[in-house]
Design goal:
By secondary structure, the protein is of the alpha+beta class. It folds into 2 domains: 1-57, no CATH class; 60-151, no CATH class. It is built from 2 helices and 6 strands; from the N terminus they run ααββββββ. The longest helix has 26 residues, at 34-59. It is elongated, with a radius of gyration of 22 Å. The two termini are 42 Å apart.
Length: 152
Amino acid sequence: MLTLQNWLSFYEKNYEFVGKVIGRFYGEDGLPTPELTQVEAKISKGLEAKTRALEEKHKFPPCNSEWSSARGSRFWCSPNSGGVSRDWTGVPRKLYKPGAKEPHCVCVRTTGPPSDQALDNPAHRNRGDLDHPNLEEYTGCPPVSMACSFPL
């Protein structure tokens, strides 16, 4: 649906409107059909999901990663990992998403309040998002290390 929305935006921005095609989305009276209303609702839900995904990517940016047959796997965090520029580096953690088969590596902020709490909330323990329930440390990786290596 978002691909359809991208095409609509492209045509609305770059072409002059000359009329409507009667059929699935517009009736002979030129008014939207119930099917168009359903499609627009799905596009709206897709845009909301995309916004939530971008917010999560800023909260938990993807780790940098590399693999070689000689050295195995390595995950690490930097202030720009995952294409997300920020003022913190973070540590690699497994993020489990509901419905996903496998976790993926994300960089997690280690200081300040959790992302969903205000800076002035006295209840936080200055651990950033380390205590988020969907996160898990990598076995064999030091808890505050910015990089984790897994030799073959």
